[in-house]
Amino acid sequence: MTDGQKTPLTRSTYERLQAELEDLRTRGRVEIARAIEAARALGDLSENGDYHAAKDQQGKMEARIRQIEATLANCEVVDDLGTSDKVAPGTVVSIRYEGDDEVERYLVGSIEEQTEGVSVVSPASPLGQALLGRGPGETVEYEAPGGTLRVEIVAVGQ
């Protein structure tokens, strides 16, 4: 999120990220180190596919560690997400774009909160900002790259 805003996370997501971070820092790093060492034992590193694959995997794992650390350092744990009839960070909202019959579901929050079948929209995005604090039956407008869009809030909650 931008402008110093904290990323809202549910307690379960916060704990899941903490566990993932601990696992990557311990078991993950040990396994990668073993894979790199085993690949080194095979000889010439310049043409050693196992070595390069292990180093690539190590880079991806370290990037994920940094991503989780940054998320946890800039988050706010919110225990009561989705308990009201108003859109708040962490709630799922069903909306219908003006002129469209299809209802779309979005989670207003962090990508780390994403669940299967629901897209994520950041509370800091134009759509997220327009939805926050609003309830079912309300119509909101927001500026998109292609112009102003209007959406009706069909439902709020899981």
Walk me through what this model shows.
By secondary structure, the chain is an alpha/beta fold. The chain folds into 2 domains: 7-77, Helix Hairpins; 92-156, Chitinase A, domain 3. It contains 3 helices and 7 strands, in the order βααββββαββ. The strands form 2 sheets. Strands 5-4-3-7-6 form a 5-stranded mixed beta sheet. Strands 1-2 form a two-stranded parallel ribbon. The longest helix is centred in the first third of the chain and has 30 residues, at 11-40. The protein is elongated. The mean pLDDT is 87. This is Transcription elongation factor GreA.
What's the gist of this structure?
The protein folds into 2 domains: 7-77, Helix Hairpins; 92-156, Roll (Chitinase A, domain 3), CATH 3.10.50.30.
